[in-house]
Structure formats: structure tokens, C-alpha cells
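> Could you send the tRNA-dihydrouridine(20/20a) synthase prediction when you get a chance?

Sure thing. Input:
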Amino acid sequence: MAGHRRLSVAPMMDWTDPACRYLLRLISRHTQLYTEMVPAQALWHGHAARFLKGHPSEAPVAIQLGGSDPAQLAYGAELAEAWGYDEINLNVGCPSDRVQSGRFGACLMREPALVSELVAAMRAATRLPVTVKSRIGVDDHDSYDALCRFTQAMIDGGAHALVVHARKAWLQGLSPKQNRDVPPLRYDRVAALKGDFPGIPIILNGGIRDLDTAKSWLDTLDGTMIGREAYHNPWLLAEADHRIFGASPDSRPEREAVVHAYRDYVVDHWRSGVPITRFTRHLSGLFQGLPGARIWRRTLSERGAVRGAGPEVIDQALEARHAAIPSGAETSTA
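Output:
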């Protein structure tokens, strides 16, 4: 699965759920996808079906686990392999209060020996690659030397690759949202890290919003990870298979074909009583930059909010978009 790390979509809480991953896989065959963070403790207490269910066509997909207990994380790794995931990723980057109270996420960067132990426990429990997603530092524990010590501890634990968000995290004083934007990006530190640790794959995360930027880093680093932009504008991945992975230019899908295929998925997975917006929210940005994009978004939102609404909302949004496109305007679905 190493080749798929050349480009990936970041794990994002409340966003990269199974429906989102199914949609993104319809757009790009090769981009690596990640689950939302799954608490290892929840798996330990028997909630595997709730957190691990997905669709076989999502592959290659990595599961991201959060926790600080070696036994719980090892058990989670075993379950992830049994459920068909392709990689185990340990969250050592999330700065939320909820994560800190459970002693996992970014606060673990201050305990590299423990993280090394966690990685080793997961390595012993699964044949899958075990990777770590971190920041470049946390609070005032943010020197380059500290980052190097952390990296060496990950290597000693047996990590197969590191995903490095090129911002440090402030555990006090900044919200999780502010931690995604306020601390400055330090791409130079991630590049330097690769120079000092050439033997381990290093993937850059943070502030990457287009394929040009993502591709430009592939001469220096082993991969790049796109976050929120891939969610709000998923069609940016349509060129990824060709431009990043070397697939034929003909591999690019058509937008409306993706809509229809996703609708079939929704029909199979939506159940009465489940808000259809749980599925349609992932479609909002699909026509970004094209005529009719606004009415597409509005129809999905307004019709989806109607009590009892179902997959027909997708049909209604397509019809509304077509009706809104002036005669002679660009109507390409590519």
C-alpha cells in the first residue's frame, strides 16, 4: 500500500465517514483514504460494528485509532485487520479537550517513549502497516531536536511511515479549529526531517489545497495529504489518478456518473428514520465552480431537511441544477 501514500485524504472527525469515503473513492481509485478517528477504548468495550463498518470498495483505506493503552490499541489493530482495513494509523496530533482528557492525541507528543511502546504493541498484533500522524510539536515542546527525538522513537517502535502536520498544536488557549489555522506552517521542518531520517516514509499534511502543491512536494517527501479542501471540493481528486499515480487520462470519471453511482449507494444504505442529509451533505461541493452549483447545494440542503426525505433529494438537486443552467452555458459534467 506504500504507493497509495503519495496522496491521501486526511482523517476528519464528523466528515470522513463511510459515505464520504465511498464518494471519494468514486472520484479517485488510488488516493488513500482514512477513517475518522476511532477510540481504541470503544473497540475494547465491544463496539466494533459501529465504528468499523464500511464498504469493500473504499480500499485502500486506513483506520485511525486514538488511545494510550497498549493492550487496547493492539486489540484495535487486530480488529482492523479482521475487518479488512489496509493500514493502522495512530493519532498523535488531535488537540481537542476531549482527546486530552483521555490522554491521547497531540498531548502524547510529550511522551515519545510511550508512543513508541504503543506502536510496538500494534506492530506485534497485526501484519498491517502501522503509521503515526503527529504535529511538529506541542505547546513549548516544539524544538526541531524534540521532533527528531520523537521521530526516532517512532522508528524504534517499528512505525512504517509518519504523517506530519506541519503546524504545532497549542493544547491550551486555542480551539481545535484555531489549531488548524493559527500556528504557522513550517514545511521546512518536515523537509528537514526527511533529510535526517531518509529511511522512513514521511507524508506532509497541513495547508495543501490543490494537486499542483501536492505534487510539488513529491520530489522531496514520500507523500502529501489533503484535508478540508478535499471535502469541500471533492472534484479536485478527479485528476489525481492521472497526475499523481500515472493512470491513463481516460481514468477521470464524469461528475454526473459519480452522482448516480453514489445515489445507488445511498439507496442501499439509507434507512427510514435516518436523515438523508447524513449522506447528501458530502455532495454539496461536487459542482463547485460550475454553473448551477449554488442551486445544487441549496436543493440538497432545503429538500434534505424535509421530514421523511430520501434519496429522491439527489434527483431533485440534479434537476434543479439542469434547469438553472442558461441555454448555451457550460454544461460539462466532466
